[in-house]
């Protein structure tokens, strides 16, 4: 067997030709002429050149396209002393306001090259969207719900925060199907995390009824004014939002100056039955200015005078709602004291216009927002009688404690810097409120089976 194996192997060696040529190597195929032939075959070189041309054109035109898109966006900057906010405005601008159009700048610097204080910068919400995202605390209340209507109507996204202590779902129920409206049941005494462009801080029980019949509500009122304001200012600081505080004419107390200017420091009883509300609002103003000076938060302060209109609480103890409800129910209108104390009454739509003008403007305030038309309580009762029932009667009762004798705003500052003044007179606005009250009182009576 070994011999056979040796013979077969020798035969195979004889059959294989002996060659002196070099062994096969793949590198021998990579000849320049062959590569050139590959490129020219089937127009491959043409396609390569076209691709290079397209890529070069894209990189050359990219800076120009970026400038064009920035110009088309034209979102304004709002620059304050030490920080910058980028805000998104709605598709159509509000009449009466001119805004400065600029391109986006570096979010870490302002126009003069200074850095943000504390590293706080604007948080862009919904880049590519031109409408603002706004939170309204107390947005289910009387004034807040009208403000929400205006903001929604102009194209903004609105988040309402309300715990319904005095607010009513009925005031905003017509917005429930709107995709740009959101309602959160929350107490501003507790912190909340949101991303918004603006904060309208209206949350605070303001009705005298709660002071008179529920003394504990005064403590809650003070907590809302202090803790609620602190929480909303903290939110504004974290996200770079502009903050508007709705303060009150009550910060002037029982004024010794008439009419009251914003420079007047007030005449307030710090231990009276209404002090939790008065001093709470004064503290809220203090906190607001401290956050502005210390942390660079963009703030606005409005001091609101007596306001009336639809959606007021029917039995909230305010003089206009009291007179209207009593006259509709054919009850005597209650006048406290001799009825010679004066008030100024603005219609709610005028106030809402003033709040928006203040928020969109470039002035901090405080600003008086009220109607300088002055009426005694007896004069107001006569206007209500003319509007509702000429046979209505008046009932006098002892005056309440710390009730201001005179209240009239000086709105020259708002006229000059906000281009704002009230347009609706008492005799024009009162019938609109009366129609709303009639419908609600009628529905209440039907619900009670009367």
Automatic annotation (TrEMBL):
Keyword field: Decarboxylase, Golgi apparatus, Lyase, Membrane, NAD, Transmembrane, Transmembrane helix
Cofactors (names): NAD(+)
Domain NAD(P)-binding: 136-433
Chain coiled-coil ranges: none
SUPFAM superfamilies: NAD(P)-binding Rossmann-fold domains
Pfam families found in the cross-reference section: GDP_Man_Dehyd
Location of this chain's protein in the cell: Golgi apparatus, Golgi stack membrane
Pathway: Nucleotide-sugar biosynthesis; UDP-alpha-D-xylose biosynthesis; UDP-alpha-D-xylose from UDP-alpha-D-glucuronate: step 1/1
A Gene Ontology biological process term: D-xylose metabolic process
InterPro entries, per database record: NAD(P)-bd_dom, NAD(P)-bd_dom_sf, UXS-like
GO cellular component, one term: Golgi cisterna membrane
CDD domains, sorted: UGD_SDR_e (cd05230)
Organism superkingdom: Eukaryota
Region span, Disordered: 1-31
Regions that span the bilayer: 45-65
A GO molecular-function descriptor: UDP-glucuronate decarboxylase activity
Tagged with keyword Transmembrane helix: yes
This enzyme's EC code(s): 4.1.1.35
Enzyme class: lyase
Membrane topology category: Single-pass type II membrane protein
Entry annotated with the keyword NAD: yes
Function text: Catalyzes the NAD-dependent decarboxylation of UDP-glucuronic acid to UDP-xylose. Necessary for the biosynthesis of the core tetrasaccharide in glycosaminoglycan biosynthesis.
Similarity remark: Belongs to the NAD(P)-dependent epimerase/dehydratase family. UDP-glucuronic acid decarboxylase subfamily.
Protein name per UniProt: UDP-glucuronate decarboxylase
Natural source organism: Penstemon smallii
Lineage of the organism: Eukaryota, Viridiplantae, Streptophyta, Embryophyta, Tracheophyta
């Amino acid at each position: 067997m070994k011999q056979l194996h040796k013979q077969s192997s020798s035969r195979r060696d004889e059959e294989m030709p002996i060659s002196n040529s070099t062994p096969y190597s793949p590198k021998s195929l990579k000849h320049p002429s062959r590569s050139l032939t590959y490129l020219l075959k089937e127009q491959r070189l043409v396609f390569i050149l076209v691709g290079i041309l397209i890529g070069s054109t894209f990189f050359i035109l990219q800076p120009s396209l970026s400038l064009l898109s920035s110009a088309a966006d034209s979102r304004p900057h709002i620059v304050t002393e030490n920080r910058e906010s980028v805000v998104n405005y709605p598709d159509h601008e509000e009449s009466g306001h001119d805004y400065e159009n600029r391109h986006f700048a570096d979010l870490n610097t302002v126009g003069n090259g200074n850095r943000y204080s504390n590293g706080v910068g604007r948080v862009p919400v919904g880049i590519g969207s031109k409408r603002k995202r706004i939170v309204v605390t107390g947005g289910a209340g009387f004034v807040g719900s009208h403000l929400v209507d205006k903001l929604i109507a102009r194209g903004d996204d609105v988040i309402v925060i309300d715990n319904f202590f005095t607010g009513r779902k009925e005031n905003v129920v017509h917005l429930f199907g709107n995709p740009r409206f959101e309602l959160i049941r929350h107490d501003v005494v507790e912190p909340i995390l949101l991303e918004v462009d603006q904060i309208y801080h209206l949350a605070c029980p303001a009705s005298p009824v709660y002071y008179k019949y529920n003394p504990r509500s005064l403590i809650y009122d003070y907590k809302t004014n202090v803790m609620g304001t602190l929480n909303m200012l903290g939110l504004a600081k974290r996200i770079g939002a502009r903050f508007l505080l709705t303060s009150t004419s009550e910060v002037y107390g029982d004024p010794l100056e008439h009419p009251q200017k914003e420079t007047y420091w007030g005449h307030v009883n710090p231990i009276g039955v209404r002090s939790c509300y008065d001093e709470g609002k004064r503290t809220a103003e203090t906190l607001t200015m401290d956050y502005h000076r210390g942390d660079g938060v963009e703030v606005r302060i409005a001091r609101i005078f007596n306001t009336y209109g639809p959606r007021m609480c029917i039995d909230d103890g305010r003089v206009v709602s009291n007179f209207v409800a009593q006259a509709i129910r054919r009850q005597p209108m209650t006048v406290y004291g001799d009825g010679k104390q004066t008030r100024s009454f603005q219609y709610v739509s005028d106030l809402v216009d003033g709040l928006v003008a203040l928020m969109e403007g470039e002035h901090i305030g405080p600003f008086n927002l009220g109607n300088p038309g002055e009426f005694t309580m007896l004069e107001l009762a006569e206007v209500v009688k003319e509007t509702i029932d000429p046979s209505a009667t008046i009932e006098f009762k002892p005056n309440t404690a710390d009730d201001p004798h005179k209240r009239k705003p000086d709105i020259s500052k708002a006229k000059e810097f906000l281009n704002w003044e009230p347009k609706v007179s008492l005799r024009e606005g009162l019938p609109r409120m009366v129609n709303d009250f009639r419908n609600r009182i009628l529905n209440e009576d039907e619900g009670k089976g009367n």
